[in-house]
Amino acid sequence: MASVPVYCLCRLPYDVTRFMIECDVCQDWFHGSCVGVEEDKAADIDQYHCPNCQVTHGPSVSKCRKYCRICITGVSRDSGRPVKTGSAQFVRELRSRTFPSADEVLLKPTGAQLTVEFLEERSFSVPVLVLRKDGLGMNLPPSSFSVSDVEHYIGADKEIDVIDVIRQADLKMKLGEFVEYYNSPNRDRVLNVISLEFSDTRLSNLVETPKIVRKLSWVENLWPEESIFERPNVQKYCLMGVKDSYTDFHIDFGGTSVWYHVLRGEKIFYLIRPTAANLSLFERWSSSSNQNELFFGDQVDMCYRCSLKQGNTLFIPTGWIHAVLTPVDCLAFGGNFLHSLNIDMQLRAYEIEKRLSTADLFRFPNFETVCWYVGKHLLDTFRGLRENRRHPATYLVHGAKALNNAFRSWTRKESLAEHEHEIPETIKTQQLVKDLAKEIRLVEVRVEDYTTDEEMLAVQGVKGGAGGILDLLKASKQVAGLDSALRYSMPPASPSTRDAIQGMLSMANPPSSSSSSSSSSSPLSISGGGEMLGLMKEKGGRAGWISGVKKGEKKTTFQRPGKRPVKRPARHLSDEESLDEQETLGTCFKDSDYVYPSLESDEEDHINKSKMKRKRNWDDTPWSPKARVTPTLPKQERPVREGARVASVETGLAAAAAKLAQQVSFCPERKRPKKGLATAKQRLGKILKIHRNGKLLL
Question: Bias category Low complexity: which stretches (predicted)?
Fold first, then answer.
């Protein structure tokens, strides 16, 4: 049986409840109580020599106050010595400085407005300040709740981590001892508690995290109950700080987002954006030997100041670098959470922690384990959306790609040993990486699998708004004064029926005789800022452009029976073009700026009618690489040159016409048509009983 290692002069086994210090010579460990070293004084020792080693190496060496590694920000004006972070002088100088207001970047919704959709639209990329807790779905003790009440619900014997602000050193205390210090009128030190997690205590019953946190949190929603790994408890923290407490710049572990609610007192946050440049500077500052001699806020382009007063709630997004000052005694609650809105930034923060060799005590518990659970969830989500012909959100696709890249990195042969202890037994890593990569590829190549026109337009980058395309889609359903329900209940007319109706209307509505020339714009271009507006319409797998009318152009007015006058730009039209465009504009959406043809009218029919000799059987012909490509624009008429007629050609044409007339006159079977029925249009008018003046004959 292996013997238990013993330490110190007392030669006893390791006891986690007792403070110990290591000798820098013999590298043995000693209880502070056995060698006369107090825990809060140990940070001032540069090299410790145990009683045995002091005989040969002399006494322990204390840190030099002048070049102490906990001194920061600059040199004192009075003594020329560095100002120590957290000292009274440091706090005074910090209070006197002016910083840009965080109002420049903050979002300030009400509690009811702060929803998942609200954050999805804005990517949760800037801090969110909610002035009142109403609507947040958060339960908290009353404002009369005190640190003594915290002791009552958690227990006086609970050992907690405490920060000695002046020395910027960590130490352990009993909660009862800290509460006694907090309530004392004479405080010889500035102590701060920021890491008291109470999810497994009775105090947890009095605190409910904000609803938005519960909806987004990976741990809350995706951590399986049957997991053999310990569930990360980082959702509920109690923060107790006395006046002038200060926490230096940091990124919350694992790139987690964090929420704070001030129950009593006030906290001041100094916020820095997590840009690539700022993150690089932060990593360099954190690993430098003179880190504590520099105020990080001076190294970046912008450091914002945000005051969080009693009753306010602040949500800090992933990766934001921040420091915290407590100007008055303060009691606050908060918590950390991972989510899917900023997966890439969470992974970047995690990699920074690893490069900085951050101690496990200050890292997110089982970070990689929860990422594997999330990867499996994303795979199932993508599969379900694909089966339902739905498209995942863009931020989710980007996050899945970043997560899958991390999985590949963690499972490489050279690094697997470092990461395999956090891989759940229920996860088949190689299969998950392969399947997730496949689903991501399918999402990226899938273009037409959308359920609505609005989704297609949204994916193409077209957004709604005043006068936007989505608004036109909605407005076009109410054109021509028809009831939408009645119109949609009617079956679509056949092409021949539509042609007959257009022919009837063309006879009943003769073209206007007045016309004037105006400039025209190509229907294949989309212009903004008052230019001609083009709108693409999807129909039968084809795309066509519907052009609007620019405001300010010269318009002509014509009147249709039972309709309001419609204005449109005047240009020289043939009889057939005029009649067809008149019919098209009769069923269109009109506002003060533009005239928009209805999306339900057959625009292809209008285009084809203006080109009577063009074949229509090409519309649904599959694409062929050997097919002949024809110009998309109609051939323009060339001006006739005067004096260029050839006499022989005119003579030949006259002879041919005379011969044709002679053949027709001697044809014995041909009968002379009746008066008024010589043309197809006249015969159709006779059948439909339409007078040539456009009136019905009853």
Answer: 510-526
Ramachandran area for residue 326 (φ above 0: left; ψ -120 to 50: alpha; else beta):
beta
Q: Is a pLDDT exceeding 60 seen at residue 64?
A: no
pLDDT in tens, 239-264: 999 999 999 999 999 999 999 999 99
Residues 160/193, Cβ–Cβ less than 8 Å: yes
| Distance between CA atoms of residues 529 and 110, nearest Å | 35
CA distance 74 to 292: 10
Residue 64: strand, helix, or coil: coil
- The whole-angstrom separation of Cα 11 and Cα 218 is 46
Name which of 210, 165, 217 is nearest 334 in CA terms. 210
Q: From CA 425, how far away is CA 417, in angstroms rounded?
A: 15
Element (H, E) at 556: strand 555-558
Separation in Å, CA 152 to CA 147, 149, 173, 205, 554: 9, 5, 16, 13, 82
- What sign for the dihedral angle of Cα 298, 300, 301, 305? negative
Q: In this structure, what token pair is assigned to residue 392? A: 């995942």
Contact 324, 237 (CB under 8 A): no
Find where tokens 């009593």 sit.
Answer: 264
Question: What is the Cα–Cα distance from 612 to 615, expressed in whole angstroms?
Answer: 8
As a whole number of angstroms, the distance between CA 603 and CA 538 comes to 11
> Is 384 strand, coil or helix?
helix
State whether the Cα torsion 612-614-619-621 is positive or negative: positive
**Between helices 367-387 and 429-445, what is the axis angle to 10°?**
40
What letters, b where the CB count within 10 A reaches 16 and e where it falls short, cover 587-597? bbbbeeebbbb
Q: How far apart are CA 210 and CA 109, in angstroms?
A: 14
Q: Which residues pair with 264 in a beta bridge?
A: 331
Global pTM value: 0.58
Say if CB 201 and CB 155 are below 8 A apart: yes
- DSSP reduced 3-state for 170: strand
E strands present in 563-613 = 566-569, 588-590, 595-597
Q: What is the DSSP letter of 375?
A: H
Q: How far is CA 376 from the centre of its chain?
A: 22
| Cα–Cα nearest to 143, from 133, 129, 152 | 133
Question: How far is C-alpha 251 from the chain's CA centre?
Answer: 21
Query: What would the pLDDT profile of 80-131 be if each residue is shown by its tens digit?
Result: 566 777 788 889 999 999 999 999 999 999 999 999 999 999 889 999 999 9
**b or e along 401-423 (b: 16 or more beta carbons within 10 Å of the residue's beta carbon)?**
bbbbebbeebbeeeeeeebeeeb
Beta-carbon count within 10 A of 487 CB: 13
Q: Which amino acid is at 494?
A: S
For the chain, state the CA radius of gyration. 40
Length reported for the chain: 698
* Kind of pairing between the strands at 20-22 and 257-264: unpaired
DSSP state letters, 75-132: E-TTTSSEEETTSHHHHHHHHHS---BGGGT-B---TTT--HHHHHHHTT-S-EEESS
Question: Who's near 525: CB < 8 A, 6+ residues apart?
Answer: 532, 534
Nearest residue to 505 via CA among 594, 601, 634, 617? 601
Q: How far is C-alpha 465 from the geometric centre of its chain's CA atoms? A: 18
Distance, in Å, from the CA atom of 576 to the CA atom of 610, rounded to the nearest integer, reads 7
